[in-house]
Design a protein that fits this description.
The chain has 188 residues and is an alpha+beta fold. The protein contains four helices and eight strands; from the N terminus they run H-H-E-E-E-E-E-H-H-E-E-E. The chain has one domain: Methylpurine-DNA glycosylase (MPG) (3-methyladenine DNA Glycosylase, Chain A). Strands 1, 2, 3, 4, 5, 6, 7 and 8 form an eight-stranded antiparallel sheet that branches. Helices cover 16% and strands 29% of the residues. Helix 3 packs across helix 4. It binds a DNA duplex (13 and 13 nucleotides) through strand 3, strand 4 and helix 4.
Length: 188
DNA sequence: ACAGAGATCATCT
DNA sequence: GATGATCTCTGTG
């Protein structure tokens, strides 16, 4: 199923995670091409939705297109897009194309390809914080547009989790220099 | 290149 | 009291 269809009607977070690779994502005019994502489902021990709705994860149980922002390790922000109630896609990395100056200001002196190479870095560069938790992808400050036509997508295990570690639910744009980490060899 | 530590806090055990 | 969907800096090889 197409990513835009899932966002409109709801659907599989794995299909959405794969389908978002190569698309353009902007927050208030800053952003770039999505080059890395991860899927988290409702019955997934690694997912924040696994133990059911809480105050902190309420947005993850919203309708498709809801933005779920959580604080990671007490200090970073991470941004998700809801695919269906309790299921979402973590945006892990972008290849910067728009608002390089603003993002560099927020991130400090780092090489351009590292501006958004990681979920915490991405949120920082785009100015994403908890105030956007629960917002809708379909309105300002967000913009999702077309990008690469038929991207070559890599698949691999998710990063930084300790439960359900075997699910191959991390996706990346083949050949991108802006990945948070390389993919294991022979992942297609 | 790789390993370890510190930052920092809401949620869970 | 421990644990994260992390990042950065520092020390060593």
């Amino acid at each position: 199923m197409d990513a835009l269809t899932i966002l409109r009607d709801g659907g599989d977070p794995v299909a959405l995670a794969r389908g978002l690779i190569g698309r353009k994502f902007l927050v208030a005019g800053a952003g770039g091409l999505i080059v890395e994502t991860e899927a988290y489902s409702r019955d997934d021990a690694a997912s924040h939705s696994f133990r059911g709705p809480r105050t902190a994860n309420a947005a993850m149980f919203g309708p498709p297109g809801t933005i779920y922002v959580y604080r990671s390790y007490g200090l970073h922000w991470c941004l998700n897009i809801v695919a269906a109630p309790g299921a979402a896609v973590l945006l892990r990395a972008l290849a910067p194309t728009h608002g390089l100056d603003v993002m560099a200001e927020r991130r400090g002196p780092v090489p351009p390809h590292l501006l958004c190479a990681g979920p915490g870095r991405l949120a920082r560069a785009l100015g994403v914080t908890g105030v956007l938790d629960g917002a809708s992808l379909f309105g300002p400050p967000f913009a999702l547009g077309p990008g690469i036509d038929a991207p070559a997508v890599l698949t691999g295990p998710r990063i930084g989790i300790s439960r359900d570690t075997e699910r191959p639910w991390r996706f990346g744009l083949s050949g991108s220099r802006s990945l948070s980490r390389p993919f294991p060899k022979a992942s297609h």
